[in-house]
Structures are given as C-alpha cells and as structure tokens.
Amino acid sequence: VMAQTAPALGTRFFAAAGASALRRGLAEKLFSAEEELYAAPASLGWGLPEMEKAAIQAGLEEVQVFAEYYEEERLVSRENIAAWFGPVWEKAGAPPEGGGSVNYAALLGPRLDAGEAAELKKWLEEKVAGAVLPWKSCTVFASGKG
Q1: Apex CA 137: angle with CA 70 and CA 59, to 5°?
Q2: Region of 59 on the Ramachandran plot (φ > 0 left; ψ -120 to 50 alpha; else beta)
Q3: How many whole angstroms separate alpha carbon 26 and alpha carbon 146?
Q4: Is residue 110 classed as helix, strand or coil in its secondary structure?
C-alpha cells in the first residue's frame, strides 16, 4: 500500500478564508494564483492518476487507487500568515524568480502591486489570523500486487 497527501484535492485557503469578500480584482488574482499553486505537479498536484502512475513505477500490478477525505477545523495563526505570505510584502511587483519552490509568495509577489499587497496583508492580519476555518484534506492510496 502506498499513500500520499493530495493537497490539490482539498480545501483552498482563500475560499475557506472568505477572500471573495475582497475587492474583485484582488480576489481574482488570489484565486488564480492558488489554482496555479495547486496545479504544480512536483509537490501539490498529486491526485489519483499520479498515484496510479507512481504505484506502477514502483512495480505494483493490478493497481487500485482511491481517495480518503478528512474534515476538520484549522486555526490560522499569525505565524502561519507570516510564513505563508510574509515574503509577498517584500516581493510585491517584483518579476518572478527562476527556480525555487512554488508557494504563495512566489506566485503572488509578481502579481500584486504594493497597494494590493498592503490590502492583502491588512485583511489577513485583521480578518484571518486567529480564525478557525473548515478544512478538508485528502490522502490518495494505491494498492496492488508486487
């Protein structure tokens, strides 16, 4: 049996946090960046097809894959906000950097101007930090003979 967390099949942070209440242009940029983040196959884009391929590459035969979903509530701390978004304030309007990991800061920094970054920071610090959000996560499993 193989198992892998599949963030792409779980909750989107900006939707759970209520980003649709932000100014339309800013909200659209946030949602778009997050979808791009979860589409990154190297780390977050895992799903059933990727798990099946990995199981076959590992030598399993007669592979069966399935997903298990888990629901919980998650507290978003100020430390989470700083870790996930802190670099956005520094990179607002900067051109994308080559290499490195794909994360909120890498995707949002180049998309937001200084005013939008400030608006995002204010919203995160005043409305999201300390909030408990509904959260769904997913783990994909593969089993087979081998």
Answers
A1: 100
A2: left
A3: 50
A4: coil
Query: b/e map of 73-99 (b: 16 or more CB within 10 Å)?
Result: eeebeeeebeebbebbbebbeeeeeee
What number of other Cβ atoms are within 10 A of residue 64's Cβ?
A: 11
Given a cut of 80, is residue 45 above it in pLDDT? no
Tokens 């980003």, located at residue: 19
Q: Which amino acid is at 75?
A: L
For the residues 67-93, what does the mean pLDDT come to?
85
| Axis crossing angle, helix 24-39 with helix 114-123, rounded to the nearest 10 | 80
Is the Cβ–Cβ distance between 130 and 78 less than 8 Å? yes
What tokens were used for 116? 């939008």
Question: Average pLDDT of the chain?
Answer: 88
Give 76's Cβ-side CA count (13 Å radius).
21
Q: What is the pTM of this model?
A: 0.81
User: Which residue has better confidence, 5 or 132?
Assistant: 132
Written as six digits, the tokens of 34 are: 């997050």
- Cβ neighbourhood burial of 56 (10 Å; 0-12, 13-18, 19+): middle
